[in-house]
Amino acid sequence: MLSDIEIARRSNLLSIDKIAKRIDIPEKYLEKYGEYKAKVNLSFWEEIKNRKDGNLILVSAITPTPAGEGKTTVSIGLSLGLNRIGKRSIVTLREPSMGPLFGIKGGATGGGYAQVLPMEDINLHFTGDIHAVGAAHNLIAAMVDNHIYRREEPLMDPRRVMWTRVLDMNDRALRNVIIGLGGKANGCPRESGFYITAASEIMAILGLSLSYADLKKRIENILLGFTFDNQPVYVKDLGFAGAVAAILKDALKPNLVQTTENTPAFVHAGPFANIAQGTCSVISMKMALKLADYVVTEAGFGFDLGAEKFFDIVARSSGLNPKVVVLVATVRALKMHGGMDKKKLTTPSAEYVEKGLGNLEKHLENIAKFQVPSVVAINRFETDTDEEIEVIKRFVESKNSKAIVVTAHKEGSKGAVELAEEVVHLANHQNHYKVLYPLDISIEDKIKIITSEIYGSKAVDFTAQAKKDLKMIKKLHLEDLPVCIAKTQKSLSDNPHLLGRPKDFLVTVRSINISSGAGFLVPITGDIMLMPGLPKKPAALLIDIDDEGNITGLF
Q: How high is the mean pLDDT of the chain?
């Protein structure tokens, strides 16, 4: 089979105005970035926002292997399958970050014959949204340090500045830095650091905002730090929210592209699910729901991360209502959770699949807590055997659910027809999902509910710093915000080495970041890092460009 990038290059792309026409977006609302990419002007949203919504389908997964289980490929494949059976469907996805692209992923636009295109553009700089987020975030950082240097009112305490800087790259050396060195003219020396851009509160805000007014208001509410007399300082207190929002003028507009089968796709915003809300922009999903019968979207990493946050943060604040959850499972991931050596996951073993089913079982139980119908999508790889597949099917059937093999990577829409038909059947209801917790309880209780109900923990330990943060949250009257737990994606627990379905474990909350602009709190658990590092053999070693400008090595 051809590589992803070879398939992408051989695909017959249509001009973006033709793609837009398929979902009735007039050309006057398109802002083109070349022939195959466009942003959709927000005035179009104002024109269509009172139309009836289509059905929202949420794709999540069991706890993944380091390489991922193909959620994006299944999401795109499902949308292709829905279009193949005569349903108008749009897939909405996050924008890839260059950090993981050059780290371990090597790309994040689906795979095989279920990709969003143009693949190279989307994976690298695309329409510049992530760069705009970085510039907006770093403008705030520069304005804060200038404010401190000029000794303007309110007098900020340099020791209590909470705003870092960001970079769209995995760079562990920047996690903790000293800034302002070199003498009086260079500012006030202090400790600071960098997050990856996807972890920026600006990225979270971009993903949740529905208008420029909404965007600006959220930016105004960002907590920057405290004064010497312990008073909070917000962006609105320093008066530059408008400038930050101006940088994001174009970034707020959804990006329209196409799939390998020329169906429409929105790829917009890119918060990670292990450290943020983990889904594409609300505006892109809402726009798509006015234009299609079925909108397929994905929530990052496993259901315990992206999907829980989708229900309890994104959907709760926006009014979105997923009708069906598609849970992606793979033979290789189950073998890993069964204890098989990660280097031998391509070796057939129904026994190890059986041993790993506890992880799948826990995720199915978690979906049921939100009272949404579900289906398991077995993303099939070439090395999977029929015996291994049958083990999964029999287990899922014993749980009164259904498991369907998906081969969209190899066959495109044809490989997802059965899944598409099941999704249409399951989506035929008018029920609303149920949130996991109310907002009027304590932050401690919210955290304990998520960690016990979704992760399966026995208890939660709050460090001295976390307890100090809880007191500050109460003082700032922010207890009614939902929580967005930052946790490893490698385990249901906060320990990446506890695979399968761990039990009787302790979750440690080290600190709690306040994202008052985005509208949630971020408990930091275990050893999760907001600035990732590169692996021993980064994907960057494989990526190259030839004399004709053709990029190679993306996968």
A: 96
